[in-house]
Amino acid sequence: xxxxxxxxxxxxxxxxxxxxxxxxxxxxxxxxxxxxxxxxxxxxxxxxxxxxxxxxxxxxxxxxxxxxxxxxxxxxxxxxxxxxxxxxxxxxxxxxxxxxxxxxxxxxxxxxxxxxxxxxxxxxxxxxxxxxxxxxxxxxxxxxxxxxxxxxxxxxxxxxxxxxxxxxxxxxxxxxxxxxxxxxxxxxxxxxxxxxxxxxxxxxxxxxxxxxxx
Length: 214
Hints:
The protein is an alpha/beta fold and about 210 residues long. The protein has a single domain (about 5-210), classed as YjeF N-terminal domain (Rossmann fold, 3-Layer(aba) Sandwich), CATH 3.40.50. The chain is about 40% helix and about 20% strand. It contains 7 helices and 9 strands; from the N terminus they run βααβαβαββαβββαβα. It has helices at about 10-20, 25-45, 60-75, 90-100, 135-145, 190-195, 205-210, and strands at about 5, 50-55, 75-80, 105, 115-120, 150, 175-180, 180, 195-200. The strands form 2 sheets. Strands 4-3-2-5-6-7-9 form a 7-stranded parallel sheet, covered by helices on one side. It has a two-stranded parallel ribbon with strand order 1-8. The longest helix is centred in the N-terminal third of the chain and has 19 residues, at about 25-45. The radius of gyration is 16 Å and the shape is globular.
């Protein structure tokens, strides 16, 4: 998996320090994260697949927009299902890009099982409470769909630090997690939710990352 783990607080701190100490903008990290996830999905499925990308209201959703752009470039059929509400600046920029590209966009509440892959870009490591409506209902629908799921950074609904569900939680076949495995992944029961974990580099400086290995 990885040789060290990051807590929720360390994830936030690493992103902040990458920008403040090294001048690496958050949007660069988001681009690298999304591209890495798209490349992983294409390795898992050499044949182009119908893919639904479920994007939440934070930076996890922003990763989903980047994933969609890269999959579309490689000929995949992608539909974005987007949560309403405020988007952080980097996520908003990537939302504007996929909008200008004319990629199919629908409200998250319109998602229904359709076959093919589901990309869970709803909520990331910052989640610390159970999912409310409509996300709890969507997660339950994902579970009953039988479709394979790639979770982005962490399955939505799973606590980053404990590896325990906070309520309804996505069960992923694969999880693409950034920089390092998350602290909660040390909990053996987390595997039920994460599936196989793949660590994706996002371009954070090595010196910075190495400081978290102890």
